[in-house]
# Entry
Amino acid sequence: MIHLILQSLFTALGMFWSILWALILGFAISGVVMAFVPKSKMAAILGKPKPDEIALATFFGSVSSSCSYAAASMGRTLFQKGAHIIPSLAFMIASTNLVLELSLILWIMMGWQFVVAEFLGGMILVAIMSILMMLFAPLADFEKKRKELNQGSEPKGDNKGDGDDDEATSDPKTLAGWRDAARAFVGEWQMIGKDVAIGVIISGFLMTFVPDSFWQSLFLRSGSAPDETLNVWRLIENAFVGPLVSMVSFVCSVGNIPLANVLYHGGIGFGGALSFIYADLLIIPLILIYRKYFGWKLAAWITGIFYLSMALTGIIVDLLFRAFGLVPQSSEIMPVMDMTFFQINYTFWLNMIFIIIAVGLVWLAKTGPKPEEHDCCH
# Structure
């Protein structure tokens, strides 16, 4: 037992080492955006559920934070400051599914096909969510909720990723401005570090302790002979079960990529793995935060439409990739357990470079005058 526990922790440490440079790069870019782009200006041009404004919200999200908690907080802030609920939700989806560090980590752990599928699927996910919200959601109730929020009657948000009153006034031409960006970088680590740690530790223990037979019983699998009916049912079942697994895993954002690797080798299909990755906005703690922000009724609408959109997106992207023969076999993707983590290769040198950059940013964040109230971005 002690040997298995140590093996699990070693695997978790190795996974973290493999993705460290990508995390630092992504958080640094996010810090720059958070420091120099005011939320109120974004909200001012996202006031209607028009395609161009939804696309703009998706772009803003893609260059923003990858932390699911921060995405929920910023989405609520945009909504309260005047953005329509649909662009606000599009921002949340993009900021957890279309960010740079997620793509880099997907490439490292799942292969280029998943990177392309995640990017394409993220845009499809935003489109499906927008259509479902327009057709079915009580948009008038969301507008009433905005008035309540602006009258100061909203419940206080979760302490993770909150900070709704701050405005980005930093000047990129000054040292003080870059100090704010460095503090935003540190804030990203403080918010998402625990989730990344939980994600890789859970994945390490699952790979060591949970046999493949468990995952094979959880997800429908194709038989040895071609059976299109079974494959269709497998695709549907996997795509709808994937987000449920994500919901109870309590792992958000980049932290669920190692677990996606485990699930893919355990038997979940391509579309199911994608819907699992998309569903980092559906973990139970976040659903409770939606309830704090919007009340149970509107939180249920957000959760239900997110769930349906993520499952449908997984199915659509799976069918598209299957049509072009791009669905990777699990045998083509190295299991995390088989990866050689610690060696002198490009990962080692990239980590060395970005660790130096991270140390410099932390030093910059700790020097100079302290901000009067709180960090610039969260």
Observations:
- Residues 222 and 228 are 9 Å apart (CA to CA).
- Confidence is low (pLDDT under 50) at residues 153-166, 223-228, 373-378.
- The chain has 16 helices and no strands.
- Residues 2-36 form the longest helix (35 residues).
